[in-house]
């Protein structure tokens, strides 16, 4: 059971979730884009949200700035990675994705910037929240709002996303990586900014 919980935690690790959410977005919206556009945007998101952060992580490990595993459990050690993620997400939203038609993704990344800012604020004040739950609920909220906005009947896919969110939250609790309070607060930190950004930015 422990190995399953660890597997789930790695499959839906925060460093993978933005790319997974963008992939889910294109699963619904693919007919608005050419194959070349899909490839370019997915590649850009993969580079900025996965390859650059993972490279920075291993650099920090080699310089002994980070001592935690890839889960970065130490609250103090989370500050720098959170700040790096905020800068990268802002770059992705404002520069990399500036001229493409996937405008809903800009809502998602705005919400994600707010989420990481709240997580950073918590880390500064030595408060630990579940980043897994935060990014999962951010993606789930974005996906739900997208389905409502587009009037797309994808109930089975939505149920799968809810189950994955619940399974991952349960895995984090089972591994004692977080308390139920930290998981709940993480969920709110992920969901509320997405809802606010969608309401404010959607025409």
Q: Could you report the average pLDDT, rounded to the nearest whole number?
A: 88
Q: In which range does the helix fraction lie? A: over 70%
What would you call the structural class? mainly alpha
Distance between the termini: 46 Å
Whole-number tally of structural domains = 1
Shape: globular
Would you kindly provide a written description of the structure presented here, covering whatever features stand out?
This protein is globular. It has helices spanning 2-11, 17-29, 35-62, 79-96, 103-124, 131-150, 155-174, 180-201. It has one domain (2-201). The protein starts with a helix and ends with a helix. With 203 residues, it is an all-alpha fold. It is 75% helix and 0% strand. The chain is built from eight helices and no strands.
Which labels suit this protein?
203 residues; mainly alpha; 8 helices
Itemize the secondary structure elements and their pairings.
Blueprint: H1 2-11, H2 17-29, H3 35-62, H4 79-96, H5 103-124, H6 131-150, H7 155-174, H8 180-201
């Amino acid at each position: 059971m422990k190995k399953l919980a660890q597997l789930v935690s790695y499959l839906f690790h925060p460093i993978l979730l933005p790319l997974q959410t963008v992939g889910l977005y294109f699963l619904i919206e693919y007919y608005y884009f050419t194959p070349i556009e899909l490839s370019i945007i997915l590649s850009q998101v993969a580079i900025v949200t996965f390859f650059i952060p993972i490279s920075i992580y291993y650099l920090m490990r080699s310089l002994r700035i980070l001592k935690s595993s890839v889960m970065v459990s130490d609250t103090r050690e989370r500050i720098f990675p959170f700040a790096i993620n905020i800068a990268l997400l802002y770059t992705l939203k404002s520069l990399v994705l500036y001229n493409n038609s996937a405008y809903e993704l800009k809502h998602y990344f705005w919400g994600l910037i707010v989420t990481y800012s709240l997580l950073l604020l918590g880390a500064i004040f030595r408060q630990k929240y579940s980043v897994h739950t935060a990014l999962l609920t951010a993606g789930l909220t974005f996906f739900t709002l997208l389905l409502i906005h587009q009037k797309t009947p994808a109930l089975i896919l939505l149920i799968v996303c809810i189950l994955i969110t619940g399974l991952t939250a349960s895995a984090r609790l089972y591994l004692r990586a977080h308390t139920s309070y930290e998981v709940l607060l993480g969920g709110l930190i992920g969901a509320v900014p997405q809802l606010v950004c969608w309401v404010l930015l959607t025409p």
